[in-house]
Structures are given as C-alpha cells and as structure tokens.
Amino acid sequence: MGIEIKNITKKYGKKTALDSVSLEFEKGKIYGLLGRNGAGKSTLLNIIDGRSTGFDGEIYIDGEKHSNKDRLYFEDIFLISEDNLYPPDMSINEIFKDTKKFRKSFDAEKANAMLEKFGLKAKSRIKELSTGGNTAFKNIIGLCINTPYVFFDEPTLGLDAVNREVFYRLLLERYSETDGTFILTTHLISEISNIIEKLVIIDKGKIILNDDCINVLENSFCISGDKTLLCELTEDKNVISKQYFGNSASYYVIGSEIPHSTVTGLEIKKLTLQELFIKLTEDEGRETL
Amino acid sequence: MVFKFSDDKPIYIQIAEQLEDAIFTGTFPEETQIPSTTELSVSLQINPATVLKGMNILVSENIIYKKRGLGMFVTSGATEKIRKKRQESFYEDFISPLVSEAQKLGLSKDEINSLIERGYKNGD
Amino acid sequence: MKLRHAAAYRYKTLAPFLAAVIVFSIIQYIFTKPYREVTEIDAWLSIIKGIFFFVFGIMSFKKPYKYLLQNGYQNAGIYESFLLSLPSTLVVSAIINVACYLIKSQNDYFTLIFADDNEGLAVSDMKIFLVYKIIVCTSVFALSMIAGYLFAMIFYRLDKKVMTFLMILACAAAIAVLVLFTYFGSDTGLISSYFTPAFTMLIIPLAVLLASLGYFLSERISLERSRS
Q1: Which of A47, A138, C10, C212 is the most exposed place for a label (fewest CB within 10 A)?
Q2: pLDDT tens digits, residue range A233-249?
Q3: Domain stops at, among A213, A229, A262
Q4: What is the pTM of this model?
Q5: Which residue range forms the structural domain that includes residue A56?
Q6: What digits encode the pLDDT tens for the residues A151-165?
Q7: Interface of A with B in 31-60 (CB under 8 A)
Q8: Is C87 within 8 Å of C135 (Cβ atoms)?
Q9: What is the ipTM for the molecules in this complex?
Q10: What angle, rounded to 10 degrees, do the helices at C75-104 and C40-70 form?
Q11: A-chain residues within 8 Å CB-CB of C63?
C-alpha cells in the first residue's frame, strides 16, 4: 500500500520539469520532500493531486491506477498548495463549512479548535489574512482533512517561529492520532530534520535520494585533513563534494558508515541534514573555497 | 526533564541516553511509567518512530519494558543495571579520551594523577 | 452526492447574477413596447443578453474554478459541476425573461404571439408558445454561457489583461455582427428570419455540441499556469 510513482516525466515546452521520477510514499509515515527552488517538488505534487495533466508515467494509489480513479477528485489525497486558491471574500468559518461539504472526512470542529492556537479568528475573511495567517489557516485544513495521504507544499511559508512550532506539534499529534501519511516540502531543513521519518531529495527533476532519514544521516560525514590521504581513504566511497584549503581538504561522503577510529591528522564530523542537502544540491564546479 | 540535543550523535541515541540519565538519577523511579512515545514526540518535536527507536534500545537492555495497553515502565533493578553498564564503559567514554587529550597537551601520567587527586578533593 | 456539493457552491456565485438578470429584464421591457414585427431594438437586446450570459459563463469558470481545484477537483469534475448548475440557472433566467415580456404586454399578448411567430408556425395555444419561448431562451443562454466557460478555460493560462482584451474583442465582434445585421437585415428581412423557429431550433443542437466539446477539452487541457 502507498502511493507508487512510476517513471513520471513532465515537460513544459522544451524544459523537462520531471525526468523519469519513480518513488513510493509508504503509508503511515511522515515524509520530507526536499529540493531547491524549481527542482520539481510542486510539479510532482500537482501531478499526484491531479491538477497537472499531460505527463508520461503512471501513479498508483493503494494499488489502483490514478487515471482510473474518481473523475471528480481523489478521495484519498489532499494537497495544501502554496497558491492562494480560496475565495478572498469568504470567511474562515464559511470555508470550513464548505470543506466539510466537499470532503466528508474533514473534521470541522477540530479545525475550529485549532484556530486559536495560531491566533486566527473564525470570522476573518481570507483577504484580511497575512501570509502567515493564510498558511496557518491552510495548514489547519490539511491537519483536519483526514484523508489517508496529505501533502503540504511549503507549510512554513510566512509562519513565525512560534507558529511553526505550533504546526510541528499539531502535526505530530495528528500523526499519532490518525496514522496518516504526511508529505511536507520546506526550505527550513534543519527545523524538520527531526520531524520527518523518510527523506526524498529531488534535484533538477530527478530523485537523488530516497531513504530513511536516520539511515542517511548515520551514513554521511565530512572528513578533513591531508588531501592525498583523503583521496586514498575515500577512493571507494561516494564523495559528493570537496573543499580545498591549501594542502588540506574536506570531503563530504554519503552512503558509508561513519568511521569510528581516526587516523591522526584527520577530523571526522557528522553532517546535519541541512549540510547534507546543500552539498548534494549546490551547483557543481564549486570545488575551491 | 529537559532534553538537549546536539548534532554529534543520532537523535534516537541521545533520547535513549537522556532517558537513561533520567532513570538513573531517579526522575523516573523503578516500576513507574515513563512518558509515552506520543508525549515525547509532541513535546520534543521529534518523529515518534525515532523516539520509539531510542526507547527500544533501552528495552533491549532491559532498562524499560512494555506493559500491554499501558505503555513503557522502568524495570526493577534498572538503576543497578545502568550503574554497571556505565562502570564498564567508563574506560571507553572517559579514560581513553582523557589520555588521548592529555597526550596532545603533553601532560605526563603523574600530572594527570595529581589532577585526579584534585578532582576528588573538590568533589568532597 | 459529490456533484451536488460541488454545484451547491456555484449557486452562491449565481445568486447575484440571477438578481442582475431580473433587473436587466425589467429594465428591458420598461423601455420597449411589443411590436407586431420584430425590431432592431429587440435584436440588439437579445444579443446583449447573449453577451451578458457569455460573460456570466466566463465568471462561472474563474471564480469557482480555483476553489474547487483547491478541494482536489479535477478539470473534468469542475466542468461537470458547472454543467450541473446550468439547468436551474438558465431555466429561471428564461422564465424571468419571458415573464417580464408577459407582464408588460398583458393587454396585448395575442398580438405578441403573432409578433414573434413568423411564417410556418401556427400557434393557437398560448402555453405551447410560452414553453417554446422558454426553451429558446434557455438554449440561447446556455450556448452563451458554455461558450463563455470554454473561452475562459482555453485562455485561462493567459495574463489577466490579455484575457480581458480578448473578451472585449469577442463582445465587439458580436456587436459588429449585429450592426451588420441591422444595416442589411431590416431591408432583406434578415432580422425577422433571425427569430424564426427554424433558426432558433438550431441553437439547441449547437448548445449540446458545445457542451460535448467542453468535456473533450476539460480532459485534455492542463489548467496549470505555465512557469517560465
């Protein structure tokens, strides 16, 4: 069970937004879908949600082919996108009521209870909300929609630090209560590195990493020291980035267990998720300081 | 209980260690319940699977055990077990790095010994 | 059930338009008198109503589209809910349209029957005539509205300004056709033939054809904004 994505290719004219993307979103886990601006995250989410057509490849939701499912909407999926698609003149309250009509599984009472936690009022109209308020209100819908799969595209946009924590807490609470599948995209990598269980990194339309977050971090490190020594030691390893400081260098390695014993003169450091992400996706050719 | 997380060790190991600390210092007495996976997950903002992984380390060492339907409890004799475990790893955790650092700084064995003496005197 | 809910939202946006239709029809018939022959004014007013519904069709796409999309509706589903909301809107509009006609000409409605009834159709029963008139109105409004919706669907990706410009162009073209009609029509009897049953009955299959085209398009047009 889960969402299986097989060889999705999406082109906009000459530009390839997604290049033969294949991955699986396992049911009941929290995913972090990370990527730089324009990497293809939103494109992928729009395709899964059905907003975007005209692509090659197949999607299976819990075994059923995407294109054969409901003509109206996919019952099992809900996407909270970056765009503001809610009518500006409607109030939060009215939208909650409508959402209940559109999607029976939506828990309107819980949603109303969450408003206070983000400092929002039920009577406020969408046009009166700030960027953060808008994000918070949409996040509440995502947290209460109760579909098996919920996608949050940039749920941290415009949220201040306090409200971000509120969101993370509520997300983890809902996750524990419902065992749903939550997929988040964000640029605040260090903040979500402990919240996600699975990690998917997309770069220039391709999936470059898809693994358990803990696994990835346990097998990534930065080793610094003498250049030639490093070269020897890392011959058989996957070095994703190199930095040179005169005769010494720092090599960033992934996919190998962090070495315990160190040879004198070499320093080994564990990588944070953010550091790993940057090294994996920064533009090539940045080998010198 | 205040959790502090650093970047040097996997989070689940840090959870295991800090829970162990709390048990060792008596914050969670033997045969009492420790916070649930969900409680820790929400208050620390950490994925429950990670929290569980940390707890399972302690389960495998028999420091905590699962009571069906209720949650995780501290096993009797856990404090002793932790003490023994820490005594055994004392050398690896403290002595080895101490000697290595002392060597880097050029401190002799006698100098280290007098420092240890000083430590005990101050501790009394 | 789902379609009903989707359509339910659209009625919120339709209410103000329905109100506008009522007002428009009332104004129209205050300023026209029932004539024996169909006149230029009637033709003008009919075309303007058509344009009105064309714009209405565009608005029916734009406003609810985003909202339904946000709730996960697919293009085809959004189009279906639009079609579902049409019958009641159009029939109500048509009834209002015809009712205003009747109210104004209470004293003279038999003359009226003749005024709209040109060669070929012998109408003795007022009721049948009214039903016929309502059907015609409904079809004309339907044709306009669906055309407006499809217009918005096809040009959705375009800039707001470009879209508005194209819309004005379309309306101007319609008005230009009318001007030509009135210029040449009144002499050759084109205007009167404009309102023949034969001509107006063409509207129904045209509306159906356009609706089907909508289905075809809604499944093939990717309604996402292109990112450069």
Answers
A1: C212
A2: 888 888 888 888 888 88
A3: A213
A4: 0.83
A5: 2-213
A6: 999 999 999 999 999
A7: none
A8: no
A9: 0.86
A10: 150
A11: 87
